[in-house]
Design goal:
It is a single chain. It is built from ten helices and no strands. The protein is an all-alpha fold and 212 residues long. The structure holds adenosine-5'-diphosphate and magnesium ion (MG).
C-alpha cells in the first residue's frame, strides 16, 4: 500500500463519516449509548489531521502512527478496536510488504483478526465484525484469484452491504446492545454501518483510479 493512498483514504473517510452523521448517530442511539458518531468523527478527524506529518513516512509507519493516535483519542469500545486494526495491519505490512493486492489483503486480514482478539468477538454477534470478516475473506479470495483492484473494489462494496444488512436480525452478544436481547432485532449495528461507509469510501477511491 502506498502512503499517498492511505492518506487520501483518511481524508475521504473523514468526509464520508461526517456525511453519514444522521445514520450512524441514530443507530447507536437506538441500541447503544449514542456516542458512536462522535467517536468516529473524532477518530477520523485526528487521522486526517496527521496528513502533512505522515506524508514523508513509509506506509507501515503511517498505519502504526494512525493506530497509536486513535488509541489515545477515540473513546468507547471502538477506539481500541480500530487502533488494534491499524497497528496489526502496520506490523504485517512491515514484515511481509504490502505492494501486491494479496499482501494488502493479508495485512487487512491481520487487522480484522486483531479486532476479534481484542474484543473477544466473532462474526454473528451484531458488531462491526459482521462487515469486516466477510469483506476480509472476500478480499483474500479475489486477490488470490488474480482479480484487478477495480473488480475487487466493486465486489467488496457489495459484500460490505450484505454484512451490514446481516446485522439487522441478529441479537447482540457483544457491545452495549448485548443487554437488549430481542429488542435489538430490527436495528442495524452502528459500528457495522461505519465500517460499511469506510469500505465504500476506500473502494470508491480505487474505482476512481487511485493506486492502492
Ligand atoms: P461504545 O460501545 O463503548 O459506546 P462505540 O459506540 O464507539 O463504543 O462503538 C460501538 C460499536 O463497537 C458497536 O456498534 C459494535 O459494532 C462495536 N463493538 C462493540 N463491542 C465490540 C466487540 N467486542 N468486538 C467488535 N466490535 C465491537
Ligand atoms: Mg456507543
Amino acid at each position: 500500500m502506498k502512503t499517498n493512498f492511505i492518506l487520501s483514504a483518511s481524508l475521504a473517510i473523514h468526509a464520508a463519516i461526517v456525511a453519514h452523521e444522521a445514520d450512524i448517530e441514530s443507530l447507536d442511539r437506538a441500541i447503544g449509548d449514542g456516542d458512536h458518531y462522535i467517536n468516529m468523527k473524532r477518530g477520523s478527524e485526528v487521522a486526517a489531521s496527521l496528513y502533512n506529518e505522515l506524508l514523508p513516512l513509509p506506509a507501515d509507519e503511517v498505519l502504526n502512527k494512525i493506530g497509536m493516535k486513535l488509541l489515545s483519542t477515540i473513546g468507547g469500545a471502538s477506539g481500541p478496536l480500530f487502533a488494534s486494526f491499524f497497528m496489526s495491519m502496520a506490523k504485517v505490512s512491515k514484515q511481509n510488504g504490502s505492494d501486491s493486492l494479496l499482501e494488502i489483503a493479508a495485512a487487512f486480514a491481520a487487522g480484522v483478526q486483531a479486532i476479534m482478539q481484542r474484543g473477544k468477538a466473532q462474526i454473528g454477534e451484531k458488531t462491526m465484525l459482521d462487515v469486516l470478516v466477510p469483506v476480509s475473506h472476500q478480499f483474500t479470495l479475489l486477490a488470490a484469484e488474480g482479480k484487478s483492484s477495480t473488480e475487487i473494489a466493486h465486489a467488496l462494496k457489495e459484500t460490505a452491504n450484505q454484512g451490514l444488512e446481516s446485522t439487522r436480525n441478529l441479537i447482540a452478544t457483544k457491545g452495549r446492545a448485548a443487554g437488549l436481547g430481542e429488542r435489538a432485532i430490527g436495528h442495524l449495528d452502528a459500528g457495522a454501518k461505519s465500517c460499511q461507509v469506510m469500505i465504500h469510501t476506500v473502494c470508491d477511491l480505487v474505482i476512481k483510479g487511485a493506486n492502492p
